[in-house]
Write a structure and sequence with these properties.
3-stranded antiparallel β-sheet; 14% strand
Length: 328
């Protein structure tokens, strides 16, 4: 973990995964202040909003934190400029291959680039293109997910790429023993999201937190793709009426495609905008029935609300104890 911590500039190499509406100034600053690495979820923010969010986070912590940018954001270039102006040390790119010039622009601003690699072939391509670190995230994670489990991705990818760049493993991690296992396999650290939603510092609505505390692993289910023309990336969230609303939204958008009322790119954007709005309804407004309660399968290990520093300390203690046991 020393390698990952040195790369991040944190005490422990545990990132708080960027969760839209949840990973804002309070949670990010609390994570970094506790010795981990907080990451602002830019999501659909405008450059002006991101500028204000970074400034507000810097007012709450003097420690390192990162910013997660979505590659398909129409104002990506401007968002990268905002990060550079604030001298953000790490930018996490999510949502697909970085568009041409994005990596160079981020590095020119003095930041290290972290990308998600869902396959070994893509990981190698990203390393060749100059990324500084990778996150490999399995299907157990909350939010947008791929089709392969964390344990399989780790076994396939860590032996090949862990020596080249720091690799952080994510998806379904809820205890320190699992962290220890991935470190032994060659990971430089890990990323968790679900485990931090119920931190005292999280601004998530009390009903959103209660939904996490009550849920078991099997309640966090992946959404279903209805139309093959709409390459909808599955989203893992707690089962509720909102999932049925998403199915209806897909039917509506597919119908608009049939009628020629929208182009494919616009159809896909409508789906993404749906998720952003549905997530806000749940996180901020507390509508956990009709909003999207995005959660990973580790949600069953979230049993109470507690200070973020306590969650992080527990994870670190569990990992250290597991490694000590294995060392005899």
């Amino acid at each position: 973990m020393a390698r990952g911590a040195a790369f991040l500039g944190s005490e422990v190499a545990i990132l708080a995964g960027a969760m839209s509406w949840v990973s804002e100034r309070n949670l990010v600053a609390a994570m970094s202040n506790a010795g981990g690495f907080g990451v602002i979820a830019c999501g659909a923010m405008t450059p002006a909003l991101l500028d204000a969010e970074i400034a507000a986070t810097k007012a709450l912590t003097s420690r390192a934190f990162g910013v997660n940018l979505i590659t398909m954001h129409p104002a990506l270039d401007e968002l990268i400029e905002v990060c550079a102006r604030h001298r953000v040390g790490h930018v996490v790119l999510a949502g697909g291959l970085p568009p041409k010039g994005a990596l160079e622009a981020i590095k020119a601003g003095g930041a290290k680039v972290i990308c998600f690699a869902p396959t070994l072939a893509l990981a190698k391509k990203l390393i060749r293109s100059g990324v500084d670190a990778l996150v490999i995230e399995g299907m157990e994670a909350g939010g947008h997910i791929g089709p392969v489990s964390t344990s399989v991705l780790a076994q396939e990818m860590l032996p090949t790429i862990a020596a080249e760049v720091p690799v952080f493993v994510a998806g379904g991690i809820g205890r320190g023993e699992a962290i220890a296992g991935y470190l032994e396999m060659g990971a430089a650290g890990v990323q968790l999201g679900t485990r931090f939603v119920c931190a005292s510092e999280s601004v998530a609505h009390p009903r959103f937190k209660q939904a996490f505390i009550r849920a078991s692993a099997r309640d966090a289910v992946a959404s279903v793709q209805l139309d093959p023309r709409l390459p909808v990336i599955p989203v893992r969230a707690l089962r509720n009426a909102g999932a049925e609303l998403f199915t209806a939204k897909q039917r509506e958008v597919a119908g608009h495609l049939d009628e020629g009322r929208v182009a494919m790119a616009e159809a896909q954007l409508q789906i993404e905008h749906y998720w952003a709005g549905a997530l806000r309804r749940a996180v901020i407004d507390g509508d956990v029935e009709h909003g999207s309660v995005m959660a990973g399968q580790s949600v069953g290990m979230v049993t109470r609300e507690e200070p973020l520093a306590d969650i992080l300390a527990t994870l670190a203690d569990e990992a250290a104890a597991a490694l000590a046991r294995r060392a005899g």
